[in-house]
Amino acid sequence: MTRHFYYGWIVVAAAFLAELLAFGIAYSFGVFFKPLCSELGWSRTIIAGVFGVYAITHDLLAPLTGWACDRFDPRLPVAVGGFCLGLSMLLMSRVTAIWQVYLLYGFVFALGVASIYAPLMALVSQWFTKKRGIAMGIVAAGIGAGSLIFNPLSAWLISSYDMSTTYVIIGAVCWILFIPITKFVRKAPTLDTASTTVQEEGVFTGGFTRAEALKTRAFWMVSFSWLFIALALWAVSLHLVNLLTDKGIPVITAASVAGVIGGVSIVGRLSGGFLSDKVGRKSVILIGFILQLIGTSLFLFSGEVWEFFLSSGVFGLGAGLWCGTMPCLPADLYGAKATGSIFGLMVLFAGVGIALGPIAGGYIFDVTSSYTYMMWMCICSIILSIVFVVLMKPPVKDAKSKV
User: Fold this and answer.
1) Do residues 372 and 300 make contact, with C-beta atoms less than 8 angstroms apart?
2) Domains and CATH numbers, the chain
3) Is residue 308 a contact partner of residue 258, using CB atoms and an 8 Å limit?
4) What is residue 335's three-state secondary structure?
5) pTM for the full model?
6) Would you tell me the crossing angle of helices 251-279 and 217-246 to the nearest 10 degrees?
7) CA torsion angle 289 293 296 302 (round to 10)
8) Tens digit of pLDDT for each residue in 239-262?
9) Could you tell me which residues come within 8 angstroms of residue 364 by beta carbon, excluding any fewer than 6 positions away?
10) Distance from C-alpha of 89 to C-alpha of 109, rounded to nearest angstrom
């Protein structure tokens, strides 16, 4: 009997490209940091606040967009996301005041990312059970690829042209590429309507409701670990280019160091997804957290360019391992019944960390004129994340279960 090609892998490819664009732009915010400061004349705390508002808005919207993916055709949130990404970048080329930056990044761009990340991660997890780890790892690798591509590309475009032209180019690329992305995204089939090939992949639509998930200890352990590890990741990612250029390193070299985090994270995301299918999610996540802890510590004591490249490699590998594995947890722990909604709620906690990390880093720099204390903050945050993951246990579906 001829085995038909499984359409879930087409969804994976579309989601990979969508995450590449969304998070390539998000991670490259650090490259635009100093140009925004110099052109608008505001402090690093205020500009970091832009990213903080984006993170909070994005993650407040994540439960809603996750629910929309569960309830409606997933092409709807993805189309909205692509439109908002392109629109925000095109309008950023025309900003003249800080409130405009807050509006475009903090709401329009945030709505775009929220309409892409949680819905597509949840959607891919619904398409797979047996190969969920590797499928999610491939999609998560798009985030790393975005950082690898957009950090040095944005730095080169700004150096060769200017900030406004760079925003126009990025916005146009988003609108062009999201046309095929939206076309190829499809809702996962249920067992009742699935083909034999789909059923062999192990698609399953049972599990916990959102309310049931909230009553389990695992939900809170995963959510708080995600909050603190995201705080540590984004504080470093957003301020790394500033940290390096403050030490006299050229901006394109600094952006390349930051890009290494994304590039090496691709290896971590892919291998993390594959390994977690074999040895379990928790083990791979803990290894990722420990490697990110080591990388952060190396940044603290690095001085030469090659040392920063090495630190970025270790940091990126660790971040990639957990970034490619943690999105599997909602479907693993709670089934596919309300994956989008549960995933969106967990991402809400991550968003708190994503917002706090860069803002705290900017404030610490403005007060101390150094990023040293920010790095120590990140080290403590990672240690807390490790503790929460160690305490995580799979939930048992029971109406009487308690947190």
Assistant:
1) yes
2) 8-182+206-391 (1.20.1250.20)
3) no
4) strand
5) 0.73
6) 160
7) -130
8) 898 899 988 888 889 888 888 888
9) 370, 371, 373, 374, 377
10) 8
